[in-house]
Protein 1
Amino acid sequence: MSYIKEKFKVKADELSTEVKDLLKNHGSKVIGDVTIAQAYQGMRGITGLVTETSLLDANEGIRFRGYSIPELRDNLPKAVGGAEPLPEGLFYLMLMGELPTEADVQHLSSVWARRSHVPNHVFDAIEALPITTHPMTMFNVGIMALQTESLFAKAYAEGINKKDYWSYMYEDSMNLIARLPRVAAYIYRRKYKNGQHIQPDGLLDWGSNFAHMLGYDDEGFKELMRLYMTIHADHEGGNVSAHTTHLVGSALSDAYQSFAAGMNGLAGPLHGLANQEVIRWILAMQEELGGGTPTKEQIEKYVRKTLADGKVVPGYGHAVLRKTDPRFTAQMEFAKKHLPEDELVKIVWMVYDVVPGVLTELGKAKNPWPNVDAHSGALLVHYGMVEYEFYTVLFGVSRALGVLASLCWDRALGLSIERPKSVTTEWMKNFVEGKVEASAE
Ligand code: CMX
């Protein structure tokens, strides 16, 4: 067993004991009430999930095992000559709950490089799809084709003790994380670069090898990829991609099946697909205005038109956050340092000056501030990645780090199959009239 896996087992055993005690001594303690509005309106604010890897504060933003994004940028190990954190380090932090050493991060880089082989049938499955297929669909087909490699599924079919589930989930998670950049890069090169594929370079760290396979060897893009892969990795457990992965995993579906389910959620325009929508929206605005940099007045007019047409302004608003997303701010800082004169970036900043005021004035959106997706596309375009339909795949590769670390914890803690109670509107009406009890099955 690798030393990281052994260390995880020790930590998992400790926490399992604590959770057992917690359930035994306080299991019936109430942590919240549920309103009728919450049942109909996306279960917002219901505390009903446990996710160890990160915790979101509505005003402060995400903390990964207690560390904010600026703290991660200061404290996680960096590549030689680089300033952005290595995503390997964030994965270690999320899995272990403690900061990694340089050696831990190097170990993960080499383990993932060694495990990155993708069988040919995965590429064949992607090739079977029309070239016009959306990259997120290709990505999910690739992930599902990789499911043939699940060690958990094989072991379960042969019959394993439930106390060993975590071990197979750990192996599948490490293999899947190792393989995803190759699958994603294959899709990119197939769809946009005439199928001219680039072999992995096993000496590079995970993020820069991904950049290399995509065809971007510029050091600036590699730094961006490290930052990108770090900040998109996790956002506690209730968001659609994390919750779906966890939910499907709770049925003892393997890591490939669970992650693919989560990725279908990420492909929705109110979630991860918003990153492509932001660039599409800006380009449509520019086209309507005849090109060039719009004025703030023109942007405001376009925002109002978007809203009047019954559409959302992509990249703005959040189900939990109530301030500017620190993931947006981290990207803004990256842009100020590396590409302050970029035209598209300046438009993103002008949109940031305009949209919160308009959304606040209209008073409907609870959070008028930008989220992570408002900035990411402009950075990618700067380095030449203009194919915006691919952006959600990048988000997905990063999201694997958080949701798969969480799946390891789910199996290590022996979390139950998820099965909340649902009711009908008829039941709700009867409840309001006092004809049924809230606790009734
Ligand atoms: N533009 C226009 N209207 C918006 C809006 C936006 N950016 N954000 C919220 N609203 C509207 C909602 O559509 C809702 O309208 P209805 O009452 O007519 O349904 C109303 O304001 C209240 O919504 P809310 O409680 O503030 O927001 P929700 O929790 O329901 O939704 C989110 C959150 C992110 C889906 C929403 O803000 C949105 O659609 N934003 C644009 C899409 C986006 O950027 N998604 C990416 C989020 C980050 C990620 O997951 O990657």
Protein 2
Amino acid sequence: MTMSDLAVEVHALAKAYGGIPAVDGIDLQVQRGECFALLGPNGAGKTTAIEILEGYRARDSGDALVLGHDPGRPTGTWRSRIGIVLQTATDNAELNVHEVVSHFAHYYPSPRDPESVIEAVGLSEKRKTRTRNLSGGQRRRLDVALGIIGRPELLFLDEPTTGFDPEARRDFWELIRRLRADGTTILLTTHYLEEAEHLADRVAVIADGRVVAEGAPSSLGGREAGDAVVSWRTPDGVQTSRTAEPTRLVSELAAQYGGEIPELTVRRPSLEDVYLALVGRPVESPSDQGSVGEL
Ligand code: ATP
């Protein structure tokens, strides 16, 4: 792989606050055109890592290149090539949506059309509303609009859909898919595992400032090879069985029942199961609470 294939390249990145490590030796490579998600519990170091890459925090040690440039020495031209959606919302209380988006467009050499961006984030009906009168989720959509108005090559999204209702979250996913299809590289943090699963080509799980797992959401932590959990209803209640051969079990059950198996489900470990195991929390799911059935 050549350098130009990488939008972000990080080696042994470290940052401590008052002697306590927040980022403790992270290696990351994000390819151009990829959507990459950072997952991890509160305080894991995701925002610190992202803000170092955005050029807003100084690192203590390690190497970092973002679009081929050291984020520790940000320049205006480099900043105009990246888009940022921070965790804290932007404050332009007295301006309306259209004014804020148009105003930000002027900071960039080849901005997107403000009206199309307002439409893309679903704020057309609110274009004349002062930002202080927007709801929390609408304000977050405005943040996303400001992140993409400059036509960034690389978009940083720190917990972009916090406060979104389910429909707004689906709309946002669609927008991110379109940006990615346009060639925008996306680096996001999220606490919604479903969001990572929908959007990310690859994810890295960070815990205590270190990367503890990395891979495609479908294969993280050996997920695709994990045992399946088969459950079905019997007269005594729901039976659950963990097995590496679900097809064999289902065939045997089908034969036993002589057809339809009541309330049959077959489930692989979800991204959430794998994530919780990686960050050291016990996995609890309804299917684990039933008794394990023997045939
Ligand atoms: P969250 O999911 O809650 O947003 P995070 O993974 O983004 O968490 P960070 O915000 O990077 O985590 O914080 C990592 C650690 O560094 C935490 O223990 C936090 O308290 C500490 N920290 C972050 N910023 C500062 C700061 N400016 N001064 C001192 N400590 C800080």
